[in-house]
Automatic annotation (TrEMBL), chains A, B:
It comes from the Bacteria. SMART domains: HTH_LACI (SM00354). Residues 6-59 form the HTH lacI-type domain. InterPro entries: HTH_LacI, LacI/GalR-like_sensor, Lambda_DNA-bd_dom_sf, Peripla_BP_I. This is Periplasmic binding protein/LacI transcriptional regulator. The keyword Repeat does not apply. Pfam families: LacI, Peripla_BP_3. Keywords: DNA-binding, Transcription, Transcription regulation. Gene3D superfamilies: 3.40.50.2300, lambda repressor-like DNA-binding domains (1.10.260.40). Transmembrane segments: none annotated.
Amino acid sequence: MTSTRATLQQVAERAGVSLASTSRALHGTGASKAMVERVRAAAAELGYSPDAVGRSLRMKKTFQIAFAVADIGNPVYVEMMRAIHGVLAPHGYRVVVMTTGDTTGSTADLVRSLNSGFVDGMVISPLRTDDRLIQEIQQAAVPVVVIGRALGDHGISSVSTDSAGGIGAAVRHLHAIGRRRVGFLNGPLDTTPGEARQRGFDAAVRAEGFAAERIEVEIAGDFTVAAGLEAARRLFARAPDGAGQLDAVVAANDLLAIGVIHAARELGLSVPQDVAVTGMDDIEIGRVFHPSLTSVSLGSTERGRAAAQLMLRLTEDPGQQAQQVAVGPALIVRKSTDGGAR
Amino acid sequence: MTSTRATLQQVAERAGVSLASTSRALHGTGASKAMVERVRAAAAELGYSPDAVGRSLRMKKTFQIAFAVADIGNPVYVEMMRAIHGVLAPHGYRVVVMTTGDTTGSTADLVRSLNSGFVDGMVISPLRTDDRLIQEIQQAAVPVVVIGRALGDHGISSVSTDSAGGIGAAVRHLHAIGRRRVGFLNGPLDTTPGEARQRGFDAAVRAEGFAAERIEVEIAGDFTVAAGLEAARRLFARAPDGAGQLDAVVAANDLLAIGVIHAARELGLSVPQDVAVTGMDDIEIGRVFHPSLTSVSLGSTERGRAAAQLMLRLTEDPGQQAQQVAVGPALIVRKSTDGGAR
DNA sequence: CGTTCGGCTGGAATCGTTTCCAAAAGTGTG
DNA sequence: CACACTTTTGGAAACGATTCCAGCCGAACG
């Protein structure tokens, strides 16, 4: 542990010049060749490095961006974080990770805490979005970018995706490979993704040309593997009402899908032969899972990157208008639905 | 976007009292009942919330702790981060995530950057530890806690585990279930975990009472699934030199183990019947993987928590001596080795 | 040679907070 | 009523940096 860090004042004294000149010399703005050299030398001797806090106070800029999510355990958020970090770090920003509980109230509180000015902006991916949260975002002292729901109507910058359409693609895929008894395992309906995916599913199965022998819907407590396993057991346990056992399950995300596959195995059902399973989010582990997981990619990396770029623009020019970015879904077929014709 | 945030000065004027009194009133220290009430009211009317930067400058404390890892994509680090966050957040600390590349040089640079004083401390889990890094840590301006290697000799606080012993437990387990042709898939040997695990493996197979027909070692490029898959292919491809095909593989971590299982499947080998596989770290996905993964837990959560608690102690009393914590490994047997007698 | 202009430099203000110190106000006792 | 003593209050000084502003100097030009 060194005695104490060197301050600009000390560098100035050592170089025998004024504080102002020292600052300028180190920034290379409007200082003579000789001055720069002299100050650089003094700074090097003292091992000076500028204090981030002092600089932040004066410049009214912290070079920190917050990334807030309900649960950092979800690989989707980790992917987003990597992407965000990848965009921001080269511009000199640090990323502060914040975990909101999954209640909308605590999320709103978190947004409110932005008023204490410890970051220059916040990227947030809330599970639920209510009026209070929207209002807090609108009143926030720093730019906020939302990943999830499109909030352009409220003058909020957001990066959205068409998860409803994505679920539709999954449903059509299953139909195309001949599955007719399809279950849908969704997460809580009062969440943004839960609501959208339900809408997508309902629309798809009601669409023209969709022939079904059986449709079942089950809701998991949250978007985790454990909740998915539990809910999937219930789903499979439903007594076939005349029609046969389900031959396909659409899961609202990959973690739930993994739970579904687990539950299927418990019952001796093989995937994809007996039951085809689709997930959503295209998390990395799905690719190496057995069977590898058919999934609808919502471009987590792309969304994270887009959000970070939006943020960059907003922090550099705070007068900027709110902007919207939409990332399209893409179905990626793998083994969990690719059993050929039965 | 509100016009501009209220400052303490403005609250003071509104309440008609001095700046000093205002500050005291809001902290509840040495202010009269009436004063507190008056100031509170003014603050509420203005929607005042204290500026984190101003406060940091004055108090020489940022209430931020950095967590630095090579790659946040590894679930182990995510688990640690959750644990660290869980300990620190209740004490009012924010967690800043930093990604070092996996080179030791950039890690040292990161530690050096602590001199700019944007955090009160740093928890770091470096893949490699060389002299320069150790030196930077020793000279760092704020407390540093290392998760990984025990560095008590260098006067550095660290949380370590016995991964060598953990590998030993895995090897003994495989031996106990009758496997005699065992492969070891390790990560780079110049990393801290790579070196320790190699040592553990070598010691275990040389131990008294260990009977082997065949031993093979292969090194993956890094600790990821992709690298594991590739290296595992090489491992399995080695021509059996008289002895039969491998019937067990010890992987240096769970991601590599997943790669091994994948490679085995490609060859039509079934796990665990043909090849038993063990991993290390006990990541969450291993529990729901198929087959579920036998793994040596190194207590990621526990280590993260311990590191955070150490950090807490160090920041609150900087004169504190460096401390060491060791977390023991624990073998958790699941299906990937539990095929019964063949 | 005097003037103007441009580039460098140093003094001082500023960002928002906490806290030291001295002064003022209140309290109780002799 | 004076005194000692304890709260309570306000002024001012930090913390470490950037930047406005005015002054200084030398060069160029008429």
